[in-house]
């Protein structure tokens, strides 16, 4: 095996890895020796010294030696093997819920063992539940670990002992088959070799400072963090370069439609909106597809930017699609675009899952013939039988709600016509700079960092549910003064049916408490036409109070609404709470948001509610959200793996990103072979996701 590259050596060459074990290891992405060596510990345990039983501290993870004094099976609520050991300084109880006859015999009275685990306080003194242990013959000197003991990410059916045994074998092979160095020599100066870094991180010496590891500052860790961040940046640069090889239609600026639209509006675009529109125009002039992310806080006017981009394409007799994550938002967009575009002679259509029969077939035919120049819809647009005449621009709203394959499906729809559509991706969830520089490095980014004039900051308070009656009176007072209010209902279960029930129950409660008030209800299980009618009534001030589920999170614009109550606010994430709060404060009236919660609050919920009380700035909120939830959840990529890192922690390591970006550009331009190999090492499953 000497001399072979580790990425070419399958794990089945190791002792103990047959077909069954190989399949289990594959579940956590382990196929080759290189995969195994890059599967780094989550944390470490110190098993390098013994602790006397009378010195044990509750909560510590400790190694003890002792002789079995007593062992028995007890039958309480659960069958249990209970064993007491002594080292002469005190006694320790070991408890096993899962055990067999071999274990019982191995823990018989008089046997001597070494055990390791977390010390807990028990009724009869210290105890360990399910310790790791091994027999220790009294003739042998007590064998302790030479290095800190790693704890690896695992999966069902793979024990820590198995992963340690396999990495022991892999580290021996690493001495004869050094892992290939892919960084140019000038970048490696002052860095540990990859082989030494892996050896250190898998089997660290007892004196290694674990605080350095936790902070991501140990030289061995920095060696791998550097390489993994580089691989991600290089994959994004490769994706962008790949996209530029595709053909797209080039559009010269044509303002005759956009000027007509702007002349009809009661407001003028902000400087930030005009700047972003100009950036989009420059992209559309290229003969390769635009890939641009537009981010802006709640209410910053992204829809108008999207409309002005669409008009550039429609002016050249091409079609535009705008895709939204919910039917309510798709309907709202369709309504806005009809209001803006139909006076200009532009047909606006919409497609959603709930459309059936002749109405749906008719709409599909109009889209396929090119009669509809602007199409708004939900995931229904992805279906294979939906055809376009000349699809040249795809606008994706709240892109993190869509799966990778869904976005790819729209990309491919354009491909069928001989060119790729330009892509404009919009989000009202501001993305922390750290994430934008990593997960979205393949996209050009525009930020609408200015709110339209006349918007007022929203005052936010958190109030326990025990004061619910006070809040109901507050709603009554606000509506009596001519303003409007939202009452948002949430449930733990993500179920439209249960959310609808919660909203219906709240409707009954508030109708009884506020008999003179005009109250409406909107939730995800209502028919689209019903929802739209209720929303129009609220917008037209035919209703004072709107009870809703989180379907109103995005896209609803009612300037007269100045009070938002969010029931069970502790159950929602920061970004969602910020989005909901953005439904008020859209006019010149002082606006308030009440976060109604059920105590006791978890520490995470306390942090979330405090952040919302402290700031209205979506970018500050997004940074806190990143720190609380982590990048995978924030990007909606927990399942797709796009933001999953082996060593990198984006929150901890963000200070490194600007320099890594600079190095990645240098490697991409001057070392294409090494760049490709780095991507394959760290992102073996990376595919077209960056292009979608």
Q: What report would you give on this structure?
A:
By secondary structure, the protein is α/β, with parallel strands linked by helices. Helices cover 38% and strands 18% of the residues. It has 24 helices and 22 strands. The strands form 4 sheets. It has a 7-stranded mixed beta sheet, with no helix packed on it. A 7-stranded parallel beta sheet has the order 12-13-11-14-15-10-16, sandwiched between helices. α10 packs parallel to α11 and α20 (603-614) runs antiparallel to α21 (618-629). The longest helix is centred in the middle third of the chain and has 25 residues, at 219-243. It starts with 18 loop residues before the first helix and ends in a 10-residue tail after the last helix. 41% of the residues are buried.
Number of helices: 24
Percent of residues in helices: 25-40%
What is Rg? 30 Å
Low-confidence stretches: 636-643, 686-692
* Largest β-sheet summary: 7 strands, mixed
Overall spatial form = globular
The share of residues in extended strands comes to: 15-25%
Structural class: alpha/beta
Distance between the termini: 41 Å
Instruction: Tell me the total number of β-strands.
Output: 22
Q: Strands across the major sheet, in which order?
A: 6-7-4-3-2-5-8
**How confident overall, as mean pLDDT?**
84
GO molecular function: DNA helicase activity; hydrolase activity
Organism: Rosenbergiella gaditana
Family: Belongs to the helicase family. RecG subfamily.
Protein name: ATP-dependent DNA helicase RecG
């Amino acid at each position: 095996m000497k001399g072979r590259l580790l990425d070419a050596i399958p794990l089945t060459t190791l002792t103990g890895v047959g077909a069954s074990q190989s399949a289990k290891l594959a579940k956590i992405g382990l196929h080759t020796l290189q995969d195994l060596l890059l599967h780094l510990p989550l944390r470490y345990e110190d098993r390098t010294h013994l602790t006397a039983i009378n010195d044990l501290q509750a909560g510590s993870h400790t190694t003890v030696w002792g002789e079995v004094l007593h062992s028995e099976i007890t039958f309480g609520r659960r069958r249990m093997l209970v064993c007491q050991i002594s080292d002469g300084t005190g006694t320790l109880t070991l408890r096993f819920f899962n055990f067999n006859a071999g274990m019982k015999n191995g823990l018989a009275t008089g046997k001597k063992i070494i055990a390791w685990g977390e010390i807990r306080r028990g009724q009869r003194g210290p105890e360990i539940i399910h310790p790791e242990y091994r027999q220790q013959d009294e003739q042998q000197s007590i064998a302790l670990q030479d290095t800190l003991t790693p704890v690896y990410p695992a999966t069902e059916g793979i024990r820590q002992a198995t992963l340690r045994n396999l990495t022991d074998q892999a580290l021996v092979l690493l001495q004869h088959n050094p892992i290939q160095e892919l960084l140019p020599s000038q970048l490696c100066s002052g860095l540990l070799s990859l082989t030494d870094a892996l050896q250190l991180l898998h089997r660290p010496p007892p004196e290694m400072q674990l605080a350095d590891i936790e902070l991501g500052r140990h030289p061995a860790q920095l060696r791998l963090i550097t390489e993994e961040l580089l691989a991600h940046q290089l994959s994004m640069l490769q994706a962008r370069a790949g996209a530029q090889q595709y053909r797209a239609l080039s559009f010269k600026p044509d303002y005759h439609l956009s000027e007509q639209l702007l002349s009809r509006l009661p407001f003028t675009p902000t400087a930030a909106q005009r700047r972003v529109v100009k950036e989009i125009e420059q992209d559309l002039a290229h003969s390769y597809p635009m890939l641009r992310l537009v981010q802006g806080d709640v209410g910053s006017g992204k829809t108008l930017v999207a409309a002005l981009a669409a008009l550039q394409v429609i002016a050249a007799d091409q079609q535009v699609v705008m895709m939204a994550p919910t039917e309510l938002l798709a309907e709202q967009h369709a309504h806005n675009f009809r209001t803006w575009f139909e006076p200009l002679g532009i047909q606006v259509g919409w497609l959603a899952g709930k459309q059936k029969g002749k109405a749906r077939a008719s709409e599909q035919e109009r889209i396929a013939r090119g009669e509809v120049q602007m199409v708004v819809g939900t995931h229904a647009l992805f279906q294979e039988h939906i055809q376009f005449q000349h699809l040249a621009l795809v606008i994706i709203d709240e892109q993190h709600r869509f799966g990778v394959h869904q976005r790819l499906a729209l990309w491919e729809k354009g491909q069928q016509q001989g060119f790729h559509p330009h892509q404009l991706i919009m989000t009202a969830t501001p993305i922390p700079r750290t994430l934008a520089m990593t997960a979205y490095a393949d996209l050009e980014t525009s930020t609408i960092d200015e709110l339209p004039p006349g918007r007022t900051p929203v005052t936010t308070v958190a109030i326990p549910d025990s004061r619910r009656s006070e809040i109901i009176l507050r709603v009554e007072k606000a509506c009596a003064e001519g303003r409007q209010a939202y009452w948002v209902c949430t449930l733990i279960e993500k179920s439209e049916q249960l959310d609808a029930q919660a909203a219906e129950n709240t409707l009954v409660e508030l109708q009884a408490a506020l008999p003179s008030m005009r109250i409406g209800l909107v939730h995800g299980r209502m028919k689209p036409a019903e929802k739209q009618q209720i929303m129009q009534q609220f917008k037209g001030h035919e209703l004072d109070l709107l009870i809703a589920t989180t379907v109103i999170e995005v896209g609803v614009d009612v300037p007269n609404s100045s009070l938002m109550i969010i029931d069970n606010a502790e159950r929602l994430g920061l970004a969602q709470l910020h989005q909901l709060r953005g439904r008020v404060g859209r006019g010149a009236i002082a606006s308030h948001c009440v976060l109604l919660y059920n105590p006791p609050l978890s520490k995470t919920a306390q942090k979330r509610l405090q952040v919302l009380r402290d700031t209205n700035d979506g970018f500050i909120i997004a940074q806190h959200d990143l720190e609380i939830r982590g990048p995978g959840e924030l990007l909606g990529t927990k399942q797709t793996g796009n933001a999953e890192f082996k060593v990198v922690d984006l929150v901890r390591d963000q200070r490194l990103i600007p320099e890594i970006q600079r190095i990645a550009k240098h490697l991409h331009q001057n070392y294409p072979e090494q760049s490709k190999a780095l991507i394959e090492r760290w992102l073996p499953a990376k595919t077209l996701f960056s292009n979608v």
